[in-house]
Input
Amino acid sequence: MAPNGQDISIHFQTELENRADIDLVVVVPTFRRAEHLVKTLKTIVSQRPDVPYATLVVENDAEGLAGAEAAKNFFLQHPSNAAVIIAHRRGHSHACNGGWATALDLYPNLRALAGIYDDEVAAPEWLDGLMGVQEALGADIVGGPQLPVFEGSDGQRWKHHPIFSPRYDETGPVPRLYSAGNVLLTRPVLDSMARPFLDPALNLVGVGDADFFNRCKAKGFSFAWAAEAWVAEAVPPHHTTASWIRARSRERGAISTLLEHQRDSSPTGRLKTFGRSTAMLAASLPRGIKLWVQTGLAAAAFYHFHVASGRLMGEFGLAAGQKHEPE
Output
């Protein structure tokens, strides 16, 4: 057990600079994507921010360790400030919690923490983009686009579907964020939020992230969007089938219901959530037609219907999450 209370062990560590001098840490959770993890790391070590930074890889496959070994070999060949740790408890929330807490332990003077997933690669000036927007706007948390890169020949037609489109279009203040797959968290956020940061009871990709950001918003932290600080996310062929997109849309709706219940589980709160769900279902047809016209994608016409039906399914616990850890 690590000093931070997480079930963590150190697998590998390098030190080119004094750890106390590190201002920024990039945390990369990984689960059975060793080959793509190396692609991710290449784009991280090529960053040239104006502050000393380190990379922290969090292996979440304690039995296989393919990602940990791939990261270790990479850092031996590409010397940089880096550490590879093992999060022995399986799941997205455990991996993020272990990584964020360990970053604070290993690099005590860090001023910000950036997050990226192991199925993504970063833009050449990704860190500069996140940090520049944070400094310009004084935001506590900054997010950026996760742009899809479709691996299947049929995938490109889904590019403008809401499941794959960025939440926001322009750089500037935004009301909230939803994913920790491209984010910058400032030190005040890390110091103020209760640990574990992501609720282990919401151990699903997307659910724990969104719940954490909801709690950050409730504490008064501000959010911003950095449109140029993109990461490119690999989308496998089976994620571009109509059945997967339908299920993912319903899951998105179920997640929103779950988070609303988290905020207010009283009978009145649940009734309000149910009312919003039924209103969304009633409006799904005209909204779907509008989305079809905007995107030129007929299948997108059903998106709002599937989200609304997922919300209603979530009322009765019928919509299960698809991703308990990265695939």
In short: The chain has nine helices and twelve strands. The first strand starts at residue 8 and ends at 14. The chain has two domains: 8-239, 241-315.
